[in-house]
Amino acid sequence: MAWLGSKVRTCWWFAQDGEKAADFYVSLLPDSFIEGGHGPEGGPPLVIEFTLAGTPMMILNAQGAPAPTHQASFSVLCDDQAEVDRLWTALLADGGKEVYCGWVTDRFGVSWQIVPRCLPEMLASPDRTASDRALKAMQGMVKLDIAALQSAFAGDAS
Questions:
Q1: How many CB atoms lie within 10 A of CB 24?
Q2: Nearest-angstrom CA–CA distance, 29 and 27
Q3: Domain count, the chain
Q4: SS3 per residue for 83-105
Q5: Could you tell me the end-to-end alpha-carbon distance of the chain, in angstroms, rounded to an integer?
Q6: Which single residue of 32, 61, 62, 142 could bond 26 by disulfide (Cβ 3.0 to 4.6 Å)?
Q7: What phi and psi, each to the nearest 5 degrees, are found at residue 54?
């Protein structure tokens, strides 16, 4: 059990459907799997331990749990537009909602930012003018578009 070797893991509270959420989340990213779950005999698991992209997590099914907010969220670095598009589509399925600047809320109410790996590099560039153009382009987007970000960073007028 990978989570036993980790000193810290994220715990997400769900009022219900924690097991469905964990199953969905591990289907999204490589190096993700359910470790196990436990709870009262004959009922749904109270705790579901899982690994998400190599990071130990757990979900606690807790009656009366508060609804998720943007205060805690997942941020996923994507290698290409195909990965951005795949995750975006999966997270919107069955009731997810688009937000802005690469943010999406999944059907369980959890917030995700789907970020092209090149964006943090652009924003950290010593060329502050190019970085500002990329930031402004990102702020005008809902789902992030790598080609448009690269064009803005390069200063292309198109």
A1: 18
A2: 6
A3: 2
A4: HHHHHHHHHHCCCCEECCCCEEE
A5: 51
A6: 32
A7: 85, 0
Stated pTM of the model: 0.89
The pLDDT tens digits of the residues spanning 45-75 come to 999 999 999 999 999 998 877 777 778 889 9
Residues 61 and 75 in one domain: no
Q: Which residue type, as a one-letter code, is found at position 19?
A: E
Q: Which two tokens stand for residue 37?
A: 């779950």
Find all residues with CB under 8 Å of 140, minimum gap 6, and list them. none
Share of the chain residues as helix, strand and coil, in percent rounded to the nearest 5: 35, 25, 40
Same domain, yes or no, for 50 and 100? no
Range of the domain at 45: 1-65
Could you tell me if 150 and 88 lie in one domain? yes
Do 11 and 71 fall within a single domain? no
Q: Which residues pair with 55 in a beta bridge?
A: 52
What is the distance between the alpha carbons of residues 102 and 42, in angstroms, rounded to a whole number? 40
What pLDDT, in 10s, does the model give residues 19-44? 999 999 999 999 999 999 998 888 88
Q: What is the 3-state secondary structure (H, E, C) of 16-45?
A: CCHHHHHHHHHHHCCCCEEEEEECCCCCCC
